[in-house]
Amino acid sequence: MRKADRLFQIIQILRRARKPITAEAIAEELETSKRSVYRDIATLMAQRVPIRGEAGMGYVLDSGFDLPPLMLTPEEIEAAVLGAQWVMARGDPGLVRAAEDLVAKIAAAVPERLRPLVLDPSTRTRSDRLPIPPDMIDMVEVRRAIHASRKIQLGYRDEKGEETARKVWPIAIGYLETVRMMVGWCEMRQDFRHFRTDRITTAEFLDERYPERPAVLRARWRATLRDKVPAKA
Description:
This protein has about 230 residues and is of the alpha+beta class. Helices cover about 40% and strands about 20% of the residues. It has helices at about 5-15, 25-30, 35-45, 75-90, 95-110, 115-120, 140-150, 215-225, and strands at about 50-55, 60, 150-155, 165-175, 180-185, 190-195, 200-210. Helix 1 (about 5-15) crosses helix 3.
């Protein structure tokens, strides 16, 4: 690997790390020596890349630093296009359009020699899948409610056909193979519940905010998944 490529990859590794990462871990991923990593880190710091840390303790990249846009490797392009293919096949209409726009933007921005990776990719998702039932709620508004920590008043029909009214704190959307699910804290059940979007009968997006941050609730929800089978709505 050329030194310039190695420096770029070190920055990428530090960008995605959520805690200090050691030179040993960086060297293992890049298949190089720790000594080379130490030299490369010193080179980056000399170029005023805001890296903090020291040998043996680990390194972090300060927030606010970024690279020029769309400096993508061939593997990153293939990963982005493959993900976009999946979204185009399984996402709701709003995300399908976003995925199509994403692929078009990547194709327009990458160098000519990399454009075939976008327009005629060698990696593809399956197309022979069962159709997903239509959403009975505006998924764009659901995502907005999640980002704004706003409650939703739902009418919901369970698998037995029984309908209930719920006030829900939406925190996540699950895009599964055959259904889409909205995850939320249900005030009636006082617990996390999974709501199939095709079983929602009514939806009112409220101005009322819920008290917890969505990220905090998602962490609690993931903890419950480790401890028990998710309860039905």
